[in-house]
Specification:
Layout lengths: L8 H11 L14 E5 L2 E4 L4 E4 L2 H4 L8 H13 L11 H12 L6 E5 L2 H16 L4 E4 L8 H5 L16 E4 L19 H13 L6 E5 L14 H11 L3 E5 L23 E4 L10 E5 L1 H4 L14 H16 L2 H22 L3 E7 L2 E6 L8 H13 L2 E2 L1 E3 L5 E4 L7 H17 L3
Parallel strand pairs: 3-13, 5-6, 5-7, 7-8, 8-9
Antiparallel strand pairs: 1-2, 2-3, 4-10, 9-10, 11-12, 12-15, 14-15
Helix pairs in contact: 3-10, 4-10, 7-8, 11-13
């Protein structure tokens, strides 16, 4: 077999400087060139193997190069790769039917597109069409995409490229119990952060804004998990003011949280829900889904050239089958409990870990200095060493100080033990 030649990380970095816009940074001080993936593992151009604990940021829930999914995609490519969805094909309506079956509440009608940004943009557009009101409430430190409107409802300033957001958008405090923006303690707070949404509605809007948008778990903010009861309180408030609840499940969807969708942990039915990333397991596909009464107001012509592409739709159907057949939600729940328990044990040994939080296999360990302040430089050092020892772990957080674990949902008990042991060794060696 002919040996493959790779240009290597240094050459890639040089080409990036010349041909790629500088907004796209690369991970690690000394990055590797990744060339191969198989289930929960990756390999670089030197042949080094890594346990992937980030899954391309919650994309590869079913594992890299999953043969069950790829075989179906390859068969579809042999038959029909693409026609626009203005022509009749079967897979995208079958996928829409399947999504109606697995999503909560009365969600039934989907619109397919290619990226998470498109899905959130489309959901916000639909909310305006239905309600006749373009006002939006979002959460501080949320992130909803790279389009102009998506960035405008993004409460993380580092991810807002445009300095001035679209008008008519208002922000409410995010439900971060570790670093409460209102300096309160749960449960004595009585959901003060949720109650603040009503204050925003009363004081900063027309009194009936079109929509409130939120990630079920704030990913880029540092795997921030709202407390139990938060979304119930939010929904009660929104219903009083005829405001739609848009739930962004772009990172949290498709068994990541231990349930098919993370909002199911809260017993609340969204009016509109966005999804992407893991739906395609690497294939570009996204969607927003809503109830028939809301969907049926979207009557003016609208299409997405690549939305619901035959190959991507095939991937989506294969993903949903694989999640069910291999009980990935259950594995995410069990391995997530194992991971958080292990991280909390490390927290007792290593004071650099200030907080451990998460649901399923979307988990964060916040790195802090002795005074409680954010410690991104320490985290970066640890991530670099973990990479050198064969572990790919992510980072997020407002201060970029949260070690993020979002692995393929097929990881094993042994995999979790391996990464915990590696982290323990790194922190011990660094006297943290």
């Amino acid at each position: 077999m002919e040996e493959k030649h790779y240009i290597g990380p240094e050459a890639i970095i040089e080409k990036k400087k010349k041909y790629i816009m500088p907004c796209l940074a690369h991970f690690y001080r000394h990055p590797q060139q990744l060339v191969k993936g198989s289930m929960q593992y990756l390999w670089d151009s030197t042949g080094k193997k890594y346990l992937d604990m980030y899954a391309g940021v919650s994309v590869m829930n079913c594992g890299h190069a999953n043969p069950d999914i790829l075989s179906k995609m390859k068969t579809q490519m042999d038959d029909l790769q693409h026609v626009c969805n203005i022509y009749l094909t079967e897979n995208f309506v079958n996928l829409a039917e399947k999504l109606a079956q697995v999503t909560p509440g009365r969600l039934q009608k989907s619109f397919f597109c290619s990226t998470g940004s498109e899905a959130t943009e489309g959901a916000l557009l639909l909310a305006e069409v239905y309600s006749g009101n373009s006002e939006i409430i979002a959460l501080r430190q949320g992130l909803h995409g790279r389009t102009k409107l998506g960035m405008s409802v993004t409460g993380l300033t580092m991810w807002r490229t445009a300095p001035t957001p679209v008008g008519g958008i208002h922000f409410a405090p995010n439900p971060n119990c570790y670093r409460c923006p209102m300096n309160k303690k749960y449960p004595e707070c009585d959901f003060a952060c949720a109650n603040a949404i009503e204050d925003v509605i009363k004081t900063a809007t027309s009194g009936h804004p079109g929509a409130f948008i939120a990630e079920t778990i704030q990913g880029n903010a540092g795997c921030v998990v709202p407390p139990k009861g938060y979304f119930q309180r939010v929904k009660q408030i929104l219903d009083q003011y005829n405001t739609l609840l848009i739930i962004d499940e772009v990172q949290t969807g498709f068994a990541r949280s231990g349930k098919m969708f993370a909002i199911e942990h809260y017993g609340v039915d969204p009016d509109i829900m966005c999804m992407a990333k893991a739906l395609g397991n690497g294939a570009p596909i996204s969607a927003f889904i809503t109830t028939p009464d809301i969907a049926d107001t979207y009557t003016r012509p609208g299409a997405s050239t690549l939305g619901g592409n035959p190959v991507s739709s095939t991937a989506g159907l294969a993903v949903l089958d694989y999640i069910e057949e291999h009980a990935l939600a259950q594995n995410a729940q069990e391995r997530g409990e194992q991971l958080r328990a292990g991280l909390r044990e490390l927290q007792q040994k290593h004071p650099v870990i200030g907080d451990v939080r998460g649901l399923g296999l979307m988990d964060g360990a916040e790195f802090i200095h002795a005074d409680g302040s954010e410690a991104p430089e320490i985290l970066d050092d640890c991530l670099e060493i973990l990479k050198d020892r064969g572990f790919i772990v992510g980072k997020n957080g407002v201060g970029r100080n949260v070690m993020a674990f979002q692995p393929p949902l097929i990881v094993t008990e042994e995999n979790i033990n391996d990464v915990l042991n590696a982290l323990d060794l790194v922190l011990t060696e660094k006297h943290l």
